[in-house]
TrEMBL record:
Domain of life: Bacteria
Name of the protein this chain belongs to: Magnesium transporter MgtE
The protein's role, per its UniProt record: Acts as a magnesium transporter.
PROSITE patterns, per the entry: CBS
Assembly behavior: Homodimer.
Length: 458
């Protein structure tokens, strides 16, 4: 979003704005609206009815609306709706005033015909800048970078560099870092704004440059970029191609959006939902997104039911066994989900790259054994005191120990295996791993009960 709006922007007064819209008083509306923070503007804007929003377009210039648009937090189809309310030339002008990476985010939500239409009537320079970003694959560094940055050369003084910085600052997304390039736009290093300010005017840039610059490849996954910026506490990171040409930069505010998007995506998959961040306006749309996983789990549940049916003879002889099915299956599912969450998080944060995968597996196996042994001993004592059946208590206790141990291992191994196959480990969702562990725990429980039937039947 850039640095044009600071914390001292005044708070928006909705009552005054609504009254100004009702009375069609453009002066009062602009006086109240323009000085408020773009986030507040965007929030207020999305509470308006369609006709009120159209009035806002008349009251504000495309450049002023662009600041608002960069702060909208809406669904993909709502962008198309808002742009449809604008005159096409007004919309194109508004998009051209947005930072290129933010304009690309909006255009990526439209169909190709609409994108081509807006680009054809847009300012040629802005259109070309946006086209250059549109061809990068989605979810890569190239797709989220901005080309609005400040670059200087090494063979100039601090004085001349500051002159360039002042002239480029109004359209740059950030000025905290100034990048140093050669005549072929290859990245040589970086200088912080602080270093420029405290250096003598006649100092050569080559004397104060930091040439140990950390950059990311244009094709790198956005999650990896977010991890790099988090690890190094960067406000921005340069994006380069395979020949180290500086193509753009990725700023901290863009990475915050990426982290939020990736977290929502991973949580959706863990919950077995297509898009948990979506706020659907009708139950049919919400059901459509949730049904695929539920149908898969329905068939897995039927398999679990048929598996129990195979042990019908065991159940008929020792009916008390049925009492403990929910207990064993539930505990196995819960501990499997816990291990799954730890494993997926380790992969997502990159911790798995810093420590051995076998170390993670061994730790989870040890955790599964300790928790399984503790719960197994407790349930053995409880069943014995409740039913007076020591062997039944031991059977349930050993089944819980084995189930929790295997379920914890499965919860850790499945995401690692999927990561090895280049599949998003988050798709090993909580409901999926729970159902799988239900099957494993039932096999262990009834398998042991069948083997030791003679000790259970009196």
């Amino acid at each position: 979003m850039g640095e044009a709006y600071m914390e001292e922007a005044r708070q928006l007064n909705e009552e005054i704005l609504l009254k100004a819209l009702q009375e069609e008083n453009i002066d009062v509306f602009r006086d109240e609206f323009i000085d408020s923070h773009p986030y507040d503007q965007a929030t207020f804007f999305m509470t308006l009815e369609q006709q009120q929003r159209i009035y806002v377009y008349y009251y504000l210039s495309p450049k002023e609306i662009s600041n608002l648009f960069e702060n909208l937090e809406i669904e993909d189809d709502e962008y198309e709706m808002l742009l449809a309310d604008m005159d096409p030339s007004y919309a194109a002008d508004m998009l051209s005033h947005m930072y290129a990476d933010n304009a690309v985010d909006v255009l990526n939500r439209l169909d190709k015909v609409q994108v081509a239409s807006y680009l054809s009537i847009m300012n040629p320079e802005a259109a070309q800048e946006i086209k250059d970003l549109l061809h990068y694959e989605e979810y890569t560094a190239g797709s989220i970078m901005t080309t609005e940055y400040v670059a200087i050369v090494a063979n100039q003084t601090v004085r001349s560099a500051m002159y360039i910085l002042k002239s480029e600052a109004p359209k740059a997304e950030t000025i905290y870092y100034v990048y140093v390039i050669d005549d072929y736009k290859r990245l040589l290093g970086v200088i912080s704004l602080r270093d420029l300010i405290i250096s003598d005017d006649e100092t050569m840039i080559s004397e104060i440059i930091n040439d140990r610059v950390v950059s990311v490849s244009v094709g790198e996954d956005q999650e990896e970029v977010a991890r790099t910026m988090k690890d190094y506490n960067f406000l921005a990171v340069p994006v380069v191609d395979f020949q180290n040409h500086l193509l753009g930069i990725i700023t901290f505010d863009d990475i915050i959006d990426v982290m939020d998007e990736e977290a929502s995506d991973d949580y959706s998959k863990l919950a077995g939902v297509t898009d948990v961040d979506s706020t659907d306006k009708n139950p049919f749309s919400a059901a459509k997104k949730r049904l695929p996983w539920l149908i898969i789990l329905l068939f897995l549940g039927m398999f679990t039911a048929s598996l129990i049916g195979r042990f019908e003879d065991t159940l008929s002889q020792v009916a008390i066994l049925a009492v403990f099915i929910p207990l064993i299956a539930g505990m196995a599912g819960n501990t499997g989900t816990q291990a799954l969450a730890v494993s997926v998080r380790s992969i997502a944060t990159g911790d798995i790259e810093k420590e051995s995968k076998w170390k993670l597996i061994a730790r989870e196996a040890g955790t599964g054994f300790i928790t399984g042994t503790t719960c197994g001993i407790l349930i053995t004592i409880i069943v014995y005191l409740w039913k007076g059946e020591l062997f039944l208590g031991m059977l349930v206790g050993i089944s819980i120990l084995a189930s929790l141990f295997v379920a914890t291992l499965a919860g850790a191994l499945v995401p690692l295996f999927m990561h090895k196959l280049k599949i998003d480990p988050a798709v090993a969702s909580g409901p999926f791993i729970t159902t799988i562990n239900d099957i494993i725990s039932i096999l262990i429980y009834f398998g042991m009960a069948t083997m030791f039937m003679n000790y259970l039947v009196h």
